[in-house]
Amino acid sequence: MEHVEIRVDKLKGRSLFAVKDFKKGDILFEETPLVCSQFEWNALYKYLACDHCMKSLENAEDMSRRLAANPSLVLPFPQCCKVKKEEHTVCPHCKVLYCSDGCRDSAWHLYHRVLCQGASVADPNHPTEKLKDAWRNMHYPPETSSIMLIARMIALVKQCDKKDQILSKFAEFCKSTVNEEEHIAHKLLGKEFQEQLEILRSLVCEAFYDEHVQQWFTPEGFRSLFALIGTNGQGVGTSSLSVWVHNCDALELSDEERQTLDAFIDQLYVDIEKESGTFLNCEGSGLYTFQSACNHSCQPNAEVTFPHNNFTLQMVAVQDIKAGEEICISYLDECDRERSRHSRQKALRENYLFNCNCSLCQSQIDDPDVTSEEEEEEDEEQMQEDS
Ligand SMILES: [Zn+2]
Ligand SMILES: [Zn+2]
Ligand SMILES: [Zn+2]
Fold it and tell me: What class of enzyme is it (predicted)?
């Protein structure tokens, strides 16, 4: 990362700064995660993805057939689908899927030797299966995290010859106080989070105990680890259907052909929404060293994208950025970003445990604390859930 640098401040923690000028639209950097994992429900519901890089493995037509529950659907312009089935491969022992020999070998070399369950049909009594099952029963869709991210962190350390190096990389991620850790666990597991955490901890111990990371297996250590993936995990979404749509957009067509194709795609998304709601992508989360150093702003100068249909993250400037300027992204999704200062701050406090002091929030400091009706309804629902 020659063009950005992480600065560490005792009070503020890590921040990311530009070391050269960037124009709007420039790529600041690309990075792959230290560790990444598909979500458990997402995998169970056959959103087929490479077990290492999360590349979407169904071809676009199969994916749209499944999502729209229409087995006879035919996509025009099949050449716009870039899935290469002939390159796909499996672990010879447990048969998990990979997009390529390269991903299979990387996974084996980094963590899969520890995690491989050997048999091609998962044994429900295998400690890892028990752990996944327990996790799915605690964390329903829409998913925001995965216990297998923790499993992979442990496996990475177990397989690594230079354990100090990998542990110091994990140590760079943002840490929370005990109160914050409890809040995050509550958010992810619901009101019985303390018992649930203890169940998960004992299952993780049973499956992966390792003396080199003893500290992660104590109740306090496990809670911290859980909070670490909760606060630092960056969502990853991939879809061979999106790739097909994107490539269709670039086709040179007559006006009439373009209209027909656009109408087809619009209808396809309507049909998919009816059947699958908002669950369109292969989804998971990963830990990224540079992205996780980016602080939030309600008026960000950069955004995260996944242009390669896999876990490779690209940070793109959404405004001109000068050398020496801090790089900020928005932790809020698009609809939350449009809301009032009061609502934005509430969402950031609840999900990310801080009070936003960005330039936009500063400039709106005198705005009345109003919430729209929709937000009030959400507040009521939340209160009912909590009670
Ligand atoms: Zn892959
Ligand atoms: Zn395997
Ligand atoms: Zn703000």
Answer: transferase
